[in-house]
């Protein structure tokens, strides 16, 4: 059920921050009914308009859409077994299964606890993306994905298909870009919850978009929560990271400016 398409990267639009709302055709994932398992697909543009009409005309509660940063979940599932010192899980033929098994439990818990109206798993695309073209050392400090985890990715995809959870990805873009695009487009008709532990996602928070961090006991970040945690408003997260850098993605910041200095400058001047 993977939704894929190719579009030329517009590097000038992505230098700072996500491509929120800028991936053409992303709304079609919603309109085609992929986020309504078991339903009859709607024609393009009908899906969001339907919910807008129901919400505005009948005063219905806005439906919720959960967008899962899938690889964040997968890596957490993989390392959970290692942290517990439990023996590796293998089939009788030696095929690793621990990440698949724990990932399944995480998705089931998410569904049962929050009961979202719509749910989608967003994946990274294979190969380089436009950020690698802009900065050759982007994520160069990352270690290779363990082979026994890579071996489980196809099984996790098949698991999601069996659970009727759509898998969404876009060639040449990261999961962050797809999540940002879908969140921006869907938030006019739905309350969007981004399930991720990536602080970069906090720039997407609005009155209609929140972030749920499963790594911090399901901490839920609204606009006030972002200010409390990051020291800046969601719209200023990009400027904050640009100044102080981001060691996780191997992005250097401004020389001599650390976390506190970056916050002080943003609070004083508002933006870069």
Short description:
With 272 residues, this protein is of the alpha/beta class. It has helices spanning 27-31, 46-58, 70-84, 98-114, 130-134, 147-150, 153-162, 175-186, 223-230, 237-244, 259-269, and strands spanning 64-69, 118-122, 167-168, 191-195, 209-213, 219-221. Helix content is 40%, strand content 10%.
Describe, in plain words, how this protein is organized in 3D.
- By secondary structure, this protein is an alpha/beta fold.
- The protein has 11 helices and 6 strands.
- A 6-stranded mixed sheet has the order 3-2-1-4-5-6.
Which features does this protein show?
single chain; 272 residues; alpha/beta; 6-stranded mixed sheet; 6 strands; 40% helix; globular; disordered N terminus
In what range is the share of β-strand residues? 5-15%
- Distance from N terminus to C terminus (CA atoms, Å) equals 41 Å
Structural class: alpha/beta
Instruction: Give the number of DSSP strands.
Output: 6
The poorly predicted ranges are 1-45
Assign an overall shape. globular
User: Over all CA atoms, what is the radius of gyration?
Assistant: 19 Å
Order of strands, main sheet, comes to 3-2-1-4-5-6
Helix content: 25-40%
Q: SSE order, as H and E?
A: HHEHHEHHHEHEEEHHH
Task: Please state the average pLDDT score.
Answer: 79
Largest sheet: 6 strands, mixed
Count of alpha/pi helices:
11
């Amino acid at each position: 059920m993977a939704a894929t398409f190719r579009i030329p990267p517009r590097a000038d639009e992505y230098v700072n921050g996500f491509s929120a709302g800028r991936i053409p055709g992303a709304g079609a994932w919603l309109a085609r009914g992929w986020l309504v398992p078991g339903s009859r697909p709607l024609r393009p543009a009908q899906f969001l308009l339907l919910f807008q009409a129901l919400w505005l005309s009948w005063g219905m509660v806005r439906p919720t859409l959960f967008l899962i940063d899938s690889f964040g979940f997968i890596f957490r599932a993989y390392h959970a077994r290692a942290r517990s010192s439990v023996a590796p899980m293998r089939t009788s033929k030696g095929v690793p299964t621990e990440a698949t098994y724990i990932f399944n439990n995480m998705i089931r818990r998410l569904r049962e606890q929050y009961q979202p109206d719509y749910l989608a798993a967003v994946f990274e695309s294979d190969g380089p993306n436009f950020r690698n073209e802009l900065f050759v050392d982007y994520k160069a400090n990352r270690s290779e994905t363990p082979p026994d985890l890579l071996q489980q990715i196809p099984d996790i995809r098949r698991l999601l298909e069996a659970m009727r959870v759509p898998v969404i990805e876009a060639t040449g873009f990261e999961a962050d870009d797809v999540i940002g695009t879908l969140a921006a487009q869907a938030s006019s008709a739905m309350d969007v919850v981004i399930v991720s532990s990536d602080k970069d996602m906090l720039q997407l928070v609005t009155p209609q978009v929140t972030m749920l961090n499963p790594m911090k006991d399901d901490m839920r970040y609204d606009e006030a929560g972002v200010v409390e945690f990051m020291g800046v408003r969601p719209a200023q997260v990009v400027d904050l990271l640009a100044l102080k850098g981001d060691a996780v993605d191997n992005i250097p910041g401004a020389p001599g400016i650390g976390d506190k200095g970056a916050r002080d400058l943003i609070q004083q001047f508002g933006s870069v």
